[in-house]
Amino acid sequence: MNLSPQNPFSSKASQLLSWGHWFTFANIGLVLLISSSYLFADKSPTTLLGWFYMLITWVSHTSFITFSAFVLTIFPLSMVFPYPRHIRGMAAILATLGIALLSLDAFVYYKLGYHLNFSSLSDIVSVLWKTIIGHPIIATMAAGGFILIIFALELVAGNHAWHNLAKLKQYRFPRYATGALVSCFAMSHTIHIWADANTYFDITKQDNVLPLSYPTTAKKLLARHDLLDIEKYQQATDIQFDHNDSQYQLPRALPNCQPRKASVNIVYFQTHAELLSFTNDHDELVAVSQLIQPTNHDDARFNLTFGLPAYYRNPQTQHAHPSWDPSKRLIFPKHLGDTAAEEGGNASLIIINGSESTVKFDPKHLYFAFALAAKNSDVISASSYFTNVTKLQQIDGFKQLQDITYTLLASHLECSELAKATMIGRDLINSRTSVGVNFTQGVLVAFKKDRITLIKHDGSYEHISGTDGFAIEQKLNVPFLIQSIKTLKQFSNPPPT
């Protein structure tokens, strides 16, 4: 094929190639604006280096993805089908579809904590369906309007670049911009290699934030060049969560709290049938889904009573009074051996074993009722609870039993400082985070939005959906795992050896 400068085909292809670069530059700016939502979906870095890495990675990685999309789609079309008007139209359509897909992925990541993938397709559809049926007209108009606006911007950008191509070619800033982007790309990978080798988690915890992100792994690369102390690396990233020798160590001075709100009766049942027998015919008790609890009943009761993961359950703590209630008047744990709920006096949180006591529903009182999980081969189980506590009726996402106790103490009884100082859980009403941790039957359970990660002592792990229970194919996020372990062991004080 003759591609000399005088060839009309070559001239059009050259012009389209030049136009394509400017069109891509315009889309890089738009994609950077949309992808900035990923930066706010998770907890922000805590160090200056972490912030610097986040910004240069966001700029370089997003630009790389956008340019790659141009090379794989618009560029070959321009070479095979060099008709400017048609190419500009097809480019606008392809770019709109790509940005719409990116926006959908950002929405899913913000809601669920993971990117689009086929293994979680049903869960993604469920989230989108709930969003649409909640406000169908507004959601449809917003989505349709967003796509139309993006398409209009793509047409304007494409036409403007084509009609002003000669003028745009005179600008020099693309050279500097390209150099800056390449420098950011190389710098971000270099910093990540260093952070991975030195277990600098404020950087490595960002590995899975941006879509299609596969950061360079330091271990093999540096070990190949004898630049990594393998023993030191393994010690730094070693994960130990055996709790046989751990001691529960609370702060010496606990915050004072004088609750003045109405008491809450926390009623649990051995079976779901007993729960339904109690809740039937009482419209005041609203069912709320996604209560995640251990299938081990002792661990579940410990979560509820102490507001702690069962990592701290041992012969000394499981029969003691909750340490977060030194006055012994905030909580009345009947399952620990007491005989009558009325003996709780002015207790503000009253735990009752509904399977061993006759519990009559009084609409003037506040209730939180649930059934212990059925014992099976699974480590954890999802179910629903019933409550007439207004603040607990409209909570989306997963909830653990220690989160319920924490929330009632922090938000209902207004003892947030006491809850923070003595328990490991979330304030479901005021917390903006969707992460949590538990420990049961020798398995570490780490939560992040809808994703649940189960890690066994042998190092094997699995990701499952908290909504539907299906397996999620995703690599293990080691920095998130390390942070979960730190949260789990914050009250642990191992004895000296």
Summary, kept brief:
This is Inner membrane protein YejM N-terminal domain-containing protein. Residues 8-249 form the Inner membrane protein YejM N-terminal domain. Helices cover 46% and strands 13% of the residues.
Give a written overview of the molecule:
By secondary structure, this protein is an alpha/beta fold. The chain folds into two domains: 8-220, no CATH class; 264-488, no CATH class. Helices cover 46% and strands 13% of the residues. The chain has 16 helices and twelve strands. Helix 2 (48-72) packs across helix 8 and helix 14 (401-412) packs antiparallel against helix 15. Keywords: Membrane, Transmembrane, Transmembrane helix. The chain crosses the membrane at residues 21-40, 52-77, 89-112, 132-156, 176-195. This is Inner membrane protein YejM N-terminal domain-containing protein. Residues 8-249 form the Inner membrane protein YejM N-terminal domain. Pfam families: DUF3413.
Write the layout of secondary structure elements.
Elements: H1 8-39, H2 48-72, H3 74-80, H4 84-112, H5 121-134, H6 136-163, H7 165-168, H8 173-197, H9 201-204, H10 218-224, H11 230-237, E1 264-269, H12 272-279, E2 286-294, H13 297-306, E3 331-333, E4 349-353, E5 366-371, E6 380-387, E7 399-400, H14 401-412, H15 416-422, E8 435-440, E9 443-448, E10 451-455, E11 461-465, E12 471-472, H16 478-488
Parallel strand pairs: 1-4, 1-5, 2-7, 3-4
Antiparallel strand pairs: 2-6, 5-6, 8-9, 9-10, 10-11, 11-12
Helix pairs in contact: 1-2, 1-3, 1-4, 1-6, 2-8, 4-6, 5-6, 13-14, 14-15
